[in-house]
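Blinded run. Sample ID left blank on purpose so nobody reads anything into the name before looking at the predicted structure. Input follows.
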Amino acid sequence: MPAAATGTTALRVFLTLTTVAAALIVLGTGFRLWSMLSSPLHQAAGGQLVAPLDTNLEQNLPSWFSASLWLAAALLCWVCAFLAVRRTGQWVVLGVFCLLFSADETASLHERLLAPVGDAMLGADRSALLLFAWVVPGAIIAGVVGLCCWQLIRSLPVRQRRAIFLSGALFLSGALVIESVAGLVRSALGAESAAYILAAALEETLEMLGVILFISTLISLIHVRRVAGRTVLTLVTDDPIADDRGPRTALPTHPRELPADQQGLRP
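Blinded prediction complete.
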């Protein structure tokens, strides 16, 4: 598969996942607004539709979708680690961070673990902008992740490097900035206000879009080719050190298709 085909695959993945994310967010936000603004009878019916799609709740379709995105990102990072010549450990660490983010989406670990830390750091008399206290330790963790992966990201081609920076900016804008603004709106207008619901939807939109862009960028780094009946995988990098091990290959499973030296035969 040439580079152009790989880029097309990454674009298709991006568009497909973005469409799914948009559908979940629009449906969840729409049902929640309809339930809030409608009559009590319709509110009861709307509540049955809101729970499986509400982006502010856990153990529902949006949270499972986000967890699946992070899990896919972790697997792709580990594929890159397998293909990489240098900085293999950094790819592995980045994949571990993605796996932890996936677990967080499933179990809401940031609220259970980081919120008490934020409360202890900020105290009870903090600004309404920091209603969700976990954003402060969350920002520190984001900085640690960035420092751990800085050299790795710098080694990538310019286009992918910029895309990863953009994906991180989108995710952090939603997870930290819009989350803080949503806390301010919630303090002023309440959790059932239309403004808070829309702010929460914008937060989830930015977070999902950032992860989807990250996944698509990782896919664009992996080039797949057919060489002599074998599938050859290579990792695109700007690293000046040549790959002494050669490209990784996915060999055919039928023994008659294997090269002679891999069938135990001497050339």
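Unblinding after everyone has recorded impressions. The longest strand covers residues 222-227.
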